[in-house]
Amino acid sequence: MHSPVYLLAQAEACRELRDLDLPVEVISLQEEEGRHFFSNGDAEIPQEKAHLYTLCHVRTDPQDTPEKAWMLMFGSAPPRTIDFSSVKPEKRKQKALEAIVSLLKEQRRELSDRNVRLMRELGLLRQEHDRTQFAAQRLESLFYDTVKGERQHDFTLAPVSGHQNLILRDGENLEQRLPGSSVGLSDIALKSHHADVDGMLVVSLRALEEPGLIALWEVPGSKLDTGWTRLSLDRALGGDQVSLILSMEWRGHAPLGLAASVAHPDDRFLPRLEGVRHPAVLAMQGWRYIAGNEAPVPVGAVMQSGGMDKLRRVDFKDLKQALNLKTLTADVPFIAEDSALQVHVLPDEIAAAVLRGVAVTGAKHLYCNIFTRHKNAAPIEYAIALRDRRVRSAYPDQLPDFAKEFHSGWVKLQGGEASQLHIMLENPLEHDCDVYMMTRLPDGEGSTDFGWSCFSDICVRF
Amino acid sequence: MKDNIDKAEAPRIAVIIPIFRHSTLVSEAIDSALFQNLDFPIRIVLVNDGCPHLETDQVCRDYANAFPEKIAYVRKPNGGLSDARNTGIRFALDRWDSVDAIYMLDADNRLRPTALGNALNELDAHPEAGWIYPHIDMFGLPWAGDYGGDYSLLIHTVMNICEAGSLIRRSVFEAGVFFDTEFKSGFEDWEFFVSAASAGFTGRNIENFGFLYRKRPESMLADSTRDESAILAALRAKHKLLMRPRSLVQMEQVEAPRYAIVLSDCGKVLLTTDPQAENAQSITFAEYERMFWNAQISPSRHHTPPLLIITTESALLKLRESKMLHGAIWNMENMLHAAMFAGLNILPSSHGRCGYELIAPTEKKSVRPSILMVRHDIAGAILRDSSVEWAAGLTTEPAKIDVALLRLRIPSTGIQNPVPISAAHDFVSFASRVQASPYRSAASQRWDWRDKGIGWRSRTHEIPRVPLRGGVAYPRCHDGRHHMGFALPLVEFGGVEKVALNIARAMRNRGVVPHLFVLEAKEAVFDDDWASVFESITFLGDQNFATWGGAYSKYLGTDIPDWATSGDHSTALGMFCWLDSIVNFHGGAISGVMGQLKRMGIKTALSLHLSDQSPVGRLAGNTYLGLAFEHAYDVVLPCSEQLGDWCHAMGIPHEKVVPVVNAPSFELPEQYEGKIAARRNNRKPTDPLRVLYLGRLDRQKGLERLTAVLQATVAEQLPIEWRIIGKSVLSADVPPISPDVLERLEKPLTSAAELAKAYEWADVVILLSSYEGLPLTILEAMRSGAIPLATDVGAVAEVVRHGENGWLVPIETAVEGALEILRKFAKDAEYVKGMSQVAVADGTLRCWGATTETAYNRLVSKGGLSVGGPFDLTQQQKSSG
């Protein structure tokens, strides 16, 4: 849109000024029955436009003083006055053009000053930003070096036996508002029943207050066997508080059952299946992490579509479920203060604990921390190994043979020492594998006293 | 001036951004408005409110130049935030006819990209809404407040629930509602939305508005918080009608009923403030459960009646029939100040009387209430508890839990069938049910992430208490009729009470609804006669109130009761606040609340009867107290012209003095005039003269003079038959009564028939009082043809024309004078007959209908509250009805 430039003059002088054929529009400020208004001779000019676009005031008569009216209307002084009262008529055009050019030059200079100042401020902000980035980077490193990247369990809306499951048929949609704050939300779990292995549950997360999707999960039916299915975000939601809505669409021949939790009196929190409210809230769990930050994804979780699925970590909860190879029961001691599993070394045989299926399809690199907790312990050897979960023995005390590329090799640690074990695969895993964590005494060592041999931070990289 | 623009470019929303001293931050506000996800055009109006920062002008010019098709820049002299907003609003309305709504965006706040779209969708979907308002999600100092739930004007009167950043429908402004430029220190938005509500518009909250409020420790709102009391006073002054208690109770009834009345005998719950209101909502127990748990989970968003009442429909009906329903419920709510539970026992009383007794909660007793009221926090705690074990302590004998008990005695005719006394057991049973609710589990999880924004939602019953200084607002809604209160310290058979009854009856005949308030006595006459006139009776129940209590100060020698000047008036204010008018009948200290009631818009009147006398004959009493509180009354109603003159002479403006001159206190039974005429005409000259004294036996009535006259007539063996009817009311004031009087003493008469018969019997009615007003006895006697023989005191001469329709004797020579005329009457039957005929003629001239006409006009017709302002919900009800 073209922005005009106005030159303000007394009404009587307008004709003369227009005859000068200046590259601006000449307007006058007039008064009628106490009301002030601007006119270009043909029509009234809106006040706010006159205020915005008037370049200068041209005085041809010493009595022409628009200051008072201008102040009354706008609360500010009028634009600069160019005094024509003593300029000869034949010189007026030249004088006017000179004045216009002078004012525009002045404005251009002011604009340049302002731009320079803003650029300088941007520069200062940039430097500040660099310093902040550097500090944040160091803080981040410190954080990852010292803090366990564990997503914290936040809430459970447990299934309530008296409430009927929500049954999703092919193509049906279900919407559930999430409880509590969005800040730091990292994972949501749903509890399902009887999924069609060929089906697909499409889950999306959005905010009431913002447009667009926050995350999308495509969960194959095969992942929806009876139990909890954990849906992970690669990065916990940021500090902007919003109200979250989880939408689900089921695509499968057989219906999908989703467990229901408590009844809720407020309609806003009741799930809506095809727009019809169900009296009880969906059974759900939620986890949080530091708002806006990435954390390793739990190994069994479903990653959001397009998520940066680079690193997964075995949750403490899963670590506690490790089987003792000798008994095939979950009785391996969990050392809470170190968040570690203690696979106590045994005399004359290999001690092993098994984490079921945590080396998931697609993994290329598995690693964990190892350490012997007591400095008086004898040297202990540690290893980890992978084996296809489908061929796991049903009997206790059956240590399988491991393919060489699926074995970390034995690493010996002195009492009180710590290290890491790695399995680097040439090709990504084609099946989910169990992880075996093993310890033994080196040849010639006989004492298992203080053999507090531990594994922690079992991570899978893709 | 209109913009000529294509229809496709016609804006639906104008965003007004007033700017003053936010020259830098404003760019965030402008950008957030510019980059909205919308499928319709909008316009942004930048209003530079004379900001002294040149940068503000520059930034606005830059934006206006960069987006000339979207942004208008209006520069104006500084006039304050309201003025700047109004300038922008008027500019937009004038410029763009297509604008359906105006959005107010302060220069330091921001919007999420979908804010305006979400808000306009809501406005389109809800044509009843005048504006859409957001939650308050703060940044800077982060905090999020939940302002959700139904819009409540009631709550809006005590807190600002609508942020200025609301989308406001064009019609609100077209109705003349703008920001008040007098509010320069803050709360402009509060005042604006209250004005909009006063004009009949309503607000609506949406969860997903997307409004972001910049909160800094020092902000304008912080200034307004500092000046809060002054601004609130201005707000309340401007919206006086809206914020008076009776309007608040009216709103409470509609928006946030105070009581959940669980009727255990019919399985339903009434949600109401007025237990007799026709618009009380009736819900099932299951619906109440849901309501209760909703309020437990989100108390800021969901309302549930804060007070729980457990009773039966039959108990309510009984109270209603006794005309004590509202008063009893109000008394019980008052008792919750000092107790967790209030119980009500309904007991029979001797015929024609009612009364009450308050039993303190600490007394161990058997409760067995017919009605149980539970304080809101206790009800919540019990119903949320995992067991009813503690609550079951209500049902033991004695109760293990402290319960304040109101023992209400109602006329026995009102208790034909026994009223159930199972409220305590019913409460335990009800609590068990609510506790077992499936919603209970949901209460253990946090669902909303925003904090409670509307703390008042869970204690709405306290809102009408705000202007009452904490007093409980009487739970009665207005119904379009004129409700007049009659306040009396006691209700027995005294003259003042009879006058009150007759004025009330006359007012009732004109369509007024009279209500009786007993200020000090715990028992009162409320026989069929009273019950037929008054729609309700309420006992004040304020243990600190005394009609003539301790007095630190005096006015013209009369005690000014301390209660009147420095007592806690909250209870009395709560009791009267809903009325249209109130008449004080010698209520002493109650004058202390009249000024406050007057300021609430209630017409106040003082009915005066006579000046009391001190033991040395100095005038004192209610007349002088009336002078002390003259400013608190709209009108003063003396019972005689003479007392009216006295009031004026003592300084009460003439216009305020409206005499309601006494008339006979009861209607003669049908066809009684003929009976009287026959009795007078058939009296034989030989018949003995019948002399009647009818009244209290106390010092004022000149008992010693009466005794002397009686004894003298007996001694002289004059042919006179005496009857003396009455009893002492003021026991401390009773002089020794002679055996001559005692042997003739008959018990007081109360019914019209008995009184008519007594007056018919008498030839002469004698009244030798030390001081009087305008005695009803004289008027009633004359109407029946009995000749008044009275001392010339008070306004007696206003009625008795000496030697024509009666006989006046100077008080100094009263005994001699009375004896002299009695001797004449005893001898001269024709003289008696002639004077009796004149007395009848004069006595029948007076009637209450005529004498109350001016008072009615002053209290009701001219400026009565029922023709109140735009927020008189009564008027809305009337028009909709």
What attributes does this structure have?
heterodimer; A: 462 residues; alpha+beta; Jelly Rolls; 3 domains; seven-stranded mixed beta sheet; 5 helices; 19% helix; B: 881 residues; alpha/beta; nine-stranded mixed beta sheet; 33 helices; 37 strands; 35% helix; 19% strand; disordered C terminus
The biggest beta sheet of chain A is recorded as: 7 strands, mixed
**Secondary structure: number of strands of chain B:** 37
What is the CATH level 1 assignment of the largest domain in chain A? Mainly Beta
Distance between the termini of chain A: 55 Å
**Number of helical elements of chain A:** 5
**CATH topology descriptor of the largest domain in chain A:** Jelly Rolls
Rg of chain A, rounded, reads: 38 Å
Largest sheet of chain B: 9 strands, mixed
Q: Characterize the overall form of chain B.
A: elongated
Query: So how many helices of chain B?
Result: 33
Q: What average pLDDT do the residues of chain B reach?
A: 91
Class from secondary-structure proportions of chain B: alpha/beta
Beta-strand percentage of chain B?
15-25%
In short, what is this structure?
The complex is a heterodimer of chains A (462) and B (881). Chain A has helices spanning 11-19, 47-53, 67-74, 89-146, 316-320, and strands at residues 6-9, 25-32, 35-39, 44-45, 54-59, 81-83, 152-157, 166-168, 173-177, 185-193, 200-207, 213-220, 227-232, 244-251, 256-258, 260-263, 272-273, 276-277, 280-282, 284-288, 297-298, 302-303, 311-313, 323-324, 334-335, 340-342, 351-359, 365-372, 380-388, 411-413, 418-424, 433-440, 453-461. Chain A is α+β, with helices and mostly antiparallel strands and 462 residues long.
